[in-house]
Design goal:
Shape: globular
Distance between the termini: 35 Å
Strand content: 25-35%
Strand order of the largest sheet: 8-9-10-11-7-12-13
Order of helices and strands: EEEEEEEEEEHEHEEHHHHHHHEE
Number of helices: 9
Helix content: 25-40%
Number of domains: 3
Radius of gyration: 24 Å
Length: 426
């Protein structure tokens, strides 16, 4: 797989220089023409910025919006001024923050593949590719291969993943750790408009895999001769972190090949696309340590609510009034039992077993204790309830995807990488 054709990939937390373009900038009622440099800054979090030089004695109002026009294509990009001197006696630079994804040129042209970067994706073992080393031995590279809906996607970790892993594990922050390739099955040519839904779906799927926001970043369309035809300056929502706290075990990257076809088939169904997009959104938000175990539990239950409504009412045909009469715990319990997911509280969650007779009852009881202060029984074990609720979300989505293989069980205390078990319904 090629490296990204449009920029050099730096180590984590260092800026990515995307390149320069001739532009005209409408600023303060005046139009300036000159070179603009595009950079993705990685600290404090990934964001796209433009640098543009203004002449001396040019006053700027940082509260004004700025219109940037790329002279090669006529494409326009509205921006905000992020930094700059309001008045300078010498030429000075201003930093502009685009308000939308930027495509300098060419997005309607046919390409044979799209190359993209993947930030903060974990080190993994999957399909092995062995290359001969200059010393005569073999060098292993691992890649994840995904076939879905007429597309073939390959994700290969960076050759220096060990160094990137160490930096992200010790210092935190953001960095590119894998390169992806998207092609049509059968090698057919395509445009960005053809590929955009697949890129969007990949972002949701990979975020569900990691339990944090990640996805295709800075995609470039590659022509028949291997040259870049177009380049999109886009940065997805990315969360810090490198280790996994989710159902996915990094030593079993090949399991993603089994899950992705059904996930994408559900994504193409409008009812399930809405449910999955909301459920993964709440699941990823709940997986963040930023909101704490109590806040995360509330988000986890929101994910379970949308999944139960879609599965039982929208797809299963249950009367909405009957669904409502079940109550929150009953709705979750009915969903889990229909999917052959155990409702018993795992033995490792010792505090939760004193709250209710089963998992759905305990999850809802702790959640209600948090949001209804007039009925407080507390303090109740919010972190254990959140752990169980997140596991329920994972298992429901895996069941929807028809997965019957091995996964990581987050309720197992002291679990190590490589320690997996079959899903309950297998």
């Amino acid at each position: 797989m090629p490296a990204h054709p449009c920029f050099e990939i730096p180590l984590p937390n260092r800026p990515i220089v995307l390149g320069a373009a001739q532009v005209s900038v409408r600023l303060g009622g005046k139009t300036l023409t000159g070179p603009l440099t595009a950079t993705v800054t990685m600290v404090p979090r990934p964001k796209l910025e433009f640098e543009f030089e203004v002449p001396p004695y040019f006053g700027i109002d940082i509260s004004n919006d700025v219109d940037v026009t790329f002279l090669s294509s006529g494409a326009k990009s509205p921006c905000r001024i992020a930094r700059g001197r309001m008045f300078s006696q010498a030429p000075s630079s201003i930093s502009l923050r685009p308000l939308q994804e930027v495509v300098p040129a060419g997005q309607d042209m046919l390409v044979k593949q799209i190359v993209f970067a993947v930030p903060n994706f974990p080190d993994f073992l999957a399909h092995a590719v062995i290359h001969k080393s200059p010393e005569g031995g073999g060098v292993r590279e691992d890649e994840i291969r995904l076939e879905f809906s007429g597309w073939h996607a390959t994700i290969r970790k960076m050759a220096d993943i060990a160094e990137r892993k160490e930096l992200l594990s010790e210092d935190g922050g953001f960095g590119i750790t894998a390169i992806g390739l998207l092609e049509r099955t059968g090698a057919a040519l395509f445009t960005w408009q053809n590929a955009e839904p697949a890129i969007e779906a990949l972002g949701v799927f990979l975020s569900f895999v990691c339990g944090r926001w990640t996805g295709p970043m800075l995609p470039a369309g590659i022509g028949l001769a291997g040259e870049p035809i177009w380049f999109r300056w886009s940065v997805p929502l990315v969360d810090q972190g490198f280790s996994l706290f989710t159902w996915f075990d990094a030593h079993r990257g090949m399991t993603l090949s089994d899950i992705v076809p059904s996930f994408m088939a559900k994504w193409e169904d409008p009812q399930w696309k809405y449910a999955l997009s909301r459920a993964v959104y709440w699941f990823v938000r709940a997986n963040s340590v930023a909101v704490g175990g109590d806040g995360s539990l509330i988000l986890s239950q929101a994910a379970l609510e949308v999944l139960s409504w879609t599965y039982l009412v929208m797809v299963g045909g249950m009367e909405p009034k009957a669904f409502k009469r079940l109550g929150a715990a009953g709705r979750i319990r009915t969903l889990l039992k229909a999917m052959e997911i155990p409702v018993e509280i795992p033995a490792s969650l010792t505090q939760l077993s004193a709250v209710a007779a089963d998992g759905p009852g305990a999850v809802v009881a702790v959640r209600n204790d948090l949001v209804h202060p007039d009925k407080r029984e507390g303090p109740l074990p919010a972190t254990e309830a959140w752990t169980l609720a997140q596991r329920y979300v994972e298992l429901v989505i895996l069941r929807l995807c028809g997965f019957s293989g091995e996964h990581a069980n987050r309720t197992q205390s002291g679990r190590w990488v490589g320690q997996v078990e079959l899903v309950p319904w297998a």
